[in-house]
Input
Amino acid sequence: MSELALLQERSTVLVVEDDPAMLIALSDILEGAGYAVVPASDGRSALQAFEAEIPALILSDISMPVMDGIELFETVRKDPRGAAIPFIFLTARSSREDIFTGKSLGADDYITKPIKAHELVSAVQARIVRSHELMLIQLQAAYKQSLRVLANAIERATADHVERVNAYAQAVAHELGWDDARRDGLELGAILHDIGKAKVPEAVLLKPGALDEAEWAVMRKHPEDGKRMIAEIPYLAPAIPIVLYHHERWDGKGYPEGLSGEDIPEEARLLSIVDTFDAMTTDRPYRPAIPASSSFETLLEESGSHFDPTLIAAFVRCWERGEIARVLASAKHT
Output
């Protein structure tokens, strides 16, 4: 079954129309297109139906007894549950004044009678699909914000580390011409790359001196721990290669698997560069921040050994245009 068919199957349309024959006709058309229909003969009965089940869309006549469509619309919009529900006015009146009234209230569409079946279905489908898309965007934004709060809490020794790492990574990815979907996955990886450190004891994570061999063994587990923490969440799948492999090295001397060269996912290779740069240029429990110019020289020196030379070249171009400096400057003023 297609995504659209699934969306239609799960969508309920509240149809409000005082003409019994028209109400039956509208219901038949929408049910034939795969929607569940809740019929109502006036605004008051529509509100009762709304209370019983929140619909995916409301299709309402304007001129009705008891409570007309305008009053219904205003009442629904005052309810937080109905503030974002698509609302389409359906009426026989087609004067500019009526159309202006409906649209000025914020209705999503305005359809005049008589209407053809395919036009009705297309209008309903377009509004429900768009509503679904907006809901997903809002949910994703909320998820990302929650993940940022969690990740920054884990990186308690380095405030806003994930924000800077993502900003550097996005600049380089844009330079490389990566599309929006790929950069969105990169953002998730930047936010979550050190999520596995939640399992590292605070005494190790915040130790003011060099780690001993046993402590390093604990620290090196965080990529695999991080992968396990997010492996069962489909939305976070693009972040998994970054979380698992961002400590691999171009020369194969990294961890956890000792991958080398292009066997390391490109997103992880990129994050390794910007993560290292941010680590060098910020205060750490075991040392003060290193100047940006010195940190940049270190990246150049380790191109072809620690880091992918092609990605280092892209980082250099961002550096020369001042994009890296802008992220640094922004961080200093937050």
Remarks:
- The chain is about 55% helix and 5% strand.
